[in-house]
Amino acid sequence: MPHLTLHYTANLAGFDADAALAAINRVLADSGHFDEVSIKSRALRLDHYRIGTADAGRGFVHVQLKILPGRDAAVRAALSQAVLDALRTLLPASAGATEFQLCVEVDEIVADVYRKHVLAPDPL
């Protein structure tokens, strides 16, 4: 925890998903709300997508951050804004689409049903 999934459309020229994940992970670690080693992120490029009814010329980056409960709305809003700010610095003004949208949502994981087990090497 947290889990971060970044979806981005294939038409965003110059978008470096690995750099985006690194920057967002740093933002989350620096927030003080998460242990660095617990931040798990992944990016998925979307080759098939639609935005509205246009045939082309639009793109998006959508980030979903899933966290355990216990943080109030102000903290969740601050996390959302910090991730959005990081994305804005990574995307060139002309990202290959005539219009693109950046979206961030923060969802709470249902703690009663979330499970985690860490496999680590045996100590020497």
From TrEMBL:
Pfam families (UniProt xref): CHMI (PF02962)
SUPFAM superfamilies according to UniProt: Tautomerase/MIF
CDD domains to which the protein is assigned, alphabetical: CHMI
Top-rank taxon, per record: Bacteria
InterPro entries: 5-COMe_2-OHmuconate_Isoase, Tautomerase/MIF_sf
GO molecular function terms attached to this record: 5-carboxymethyl-2-hydroxymuconate delta-isomerase activity
Protein name as it appears in the record: 5-carboxymethyl-2-hydroxymuconate Delta-isomerase
